[in-house]
Design a protein that fits this description.
Layout lengths: L2 E7 L3 H11 L9 E6 L4 H8 L4 E6 L7 H14 L4 E5 L3 E3 L3 H12 L4 E4 L2 E3 L11 H7 L1 E2 L12 E3 L8 E5 H7 L12 H11 L3 E4 L5 E3 L12 H15 L5 H10 L2 E4 L2 E4 L5
Parallel strand pairs: 1-2, 1-4, 2-3, 6-11, 7-12
Antiparallel strand pairs: 4-10, 5-12, 6-10, 7-8, 9-11, 13-14
Pathway: Cell wall biogenesis; cell wall polysaccharide biosynthesis
Keywords: Glycosyltransferase, Transferase
InterPro entries: Galactosyl_T_C (IPR027791), Nucleotide-diphossugar_trans (IPR029044)
Length: about 280
C-alpha cells in the first residue's frame, strides 16, 4: 500500500519541526509527506531544513480565516497525484509512533474495499516537557487518552459513532475518500468540518472505526475551553451544519458559549454576540 501522510499547518513551527523529526523515524516511511501551508511563507524552508526527501510542501494563499477543510482536500489530492492509494491525516501538533504507517496499512488491508475511516489512538502529553523528554519511551509513559474518546486496546477495528470523528489522526484509502467526497469546503475557519465529514462518511454508506494502534502523541499547547475566540466561525459553521443535517454539532461548546454570553440563539440560528467580536 502506498500511504501518504498529510499535515496542514499555519504557525506552530516548533510543533512541526518536532513532527518532521518523528516522521523521519517512521518504519515504514510514508509514500510522501504532504505539508499544506495555509498562507504561512516559512513552512517551505522549515520542511527543507528538517523534513525527509519525501516531504512535499503545497502553499495556499493567505486568507482571513484558516481554510481547514480546503487544506485537507488539497493535501489528499496532492498525495493522490503523487501515486498514493491511502492517506493518513495527522495534525501538526501530533507526533507519530514509529509504527503508525504500518499499523494503518494493516488495518486498511483488513477492511478491503469497505468505505471506512479509521481513527487511531491519540495520547495527550502534559505541559512542561523539554526536548530531552520527547523520547518514545517517555511519551508512551506520560501520554493520556482523551476522556471523551474511549478506544479499544489492540488490533480490533470497532465501529464508532461518526459524530465522534476528529481528523487529528485518521486514515482512509483514496478510494474511500473519493466516495465520501472529502471535506465540505464551505466550512471556513474553526469548527464543524470534522463532524460534517463524519456525516458525509455515514451518508456514503461507510463506517468510522477505532483502532487501539496507529498511535500519535499530542504535543501540549494552551487551549481555551470553550474556544470563545472562534465564536463567530463556530456559530456560522454550526448553522451550516444544522441546515444540512438537521441537528447541531459541537453541542457542548454551543451551550457553554450561550451561557457565557458569547453566542445567542435566534429561532434555529446561532449568532455571535458583541462580546465575542
Amino acid at each position: 500500500m502506498r500511504t501518504a501522510l498529510i499535515t496542514i499547518v499555519s504557525g506552530r513551527h516548533e510543533h512541526l519541526r518536532r513532527q518532521l523529526e518523528w516522521v523521519s523515524r517512521l518504519d515504514p516511511q510514508p509514500h510522501a509527506h504532504v505539508v499544506v501551508s495555509m498562507g504561512d511563507a516559512q513552512i517551505t524552508d522549515l520542511v527543507a531544513a528538517h523534513g525527509t526527501q519525501r516531504g512535499v510542501v503545497v502553499v495556499m494563499d493567505p486568507a482571513d480565516e484558516l481554510p481547514l477543510a480546503s487544506a485537507r482536500n488539497l493535501g489528499v489530492a496532492t498525495a493522490s497525484d503523487l501515486g498514493a492509494d491511502a492517506v493518513v491525516l495527522l495534525d501538526v501538533d501530533c507526533l507519530p509512533d514509529s509504527e503508525l504507517i504500518g499499523d494503518y496499512d494493516r488495518a486498511l488491508a483488513r477492511l478491503g474495499s469497505e468505505t471506512a475511516v479509521i481513527s487511531g489512538r491519540v495520547k495527550y502529553l502534559p505541559d512542561g516537557m523539554t526536548d530531552a523528554d520527547y523520547t518514545s519511551a517517555r511519551v508512551a509513559e506520560w501520554g493520556r487518552d482523551h476522556p471523551a474518546r474511549v478506544i479499544p486496546e489492540g488490533i480490533e477495528l470497532e465501529k464508532a459513532d461518526p459524530r465522534m470523528l476528529w481528523s487529528l489522526n485518521i486514515a482512509a484509502t483514496v478510494e474511500s475518500w473519493n466516495r465520501i467526497g472529502g471535506f465540505d469546503e464551505t466550512y471556513v475557519g474553526y469548527g464543524g468540518e470534522d463532524t460534517d465529514f463524519g456525516q458525509r462518511l455515514a451518508a456514503a454508506g461507510g463506517s468510522m472505526r477505532w483502532t487501539g494502534l496507529a498511535c500519535a502523541y499530542h504535543q501540549y499547547h494552551p487551549t481555551v475551553t470553550p474556544p470563545v475566540q472562534h465564536a463567530v466561525s463556530i456559530a456560522r459553521n454550526a448553522n451550516l451544519f444544522r441546515a444540512k443535517w438537521g441537528f447541531d454539532p459541537m453541542e457542548g461548546w454551543l451551550n457553554q458559549m450561550l451561557e457565557s454570553g458569547h453566542l445567542r440563539r435566534e429561532a434555529d440560528q446561532w449568532r455571535a454576540t458583541e462580546r465575542a467580536r
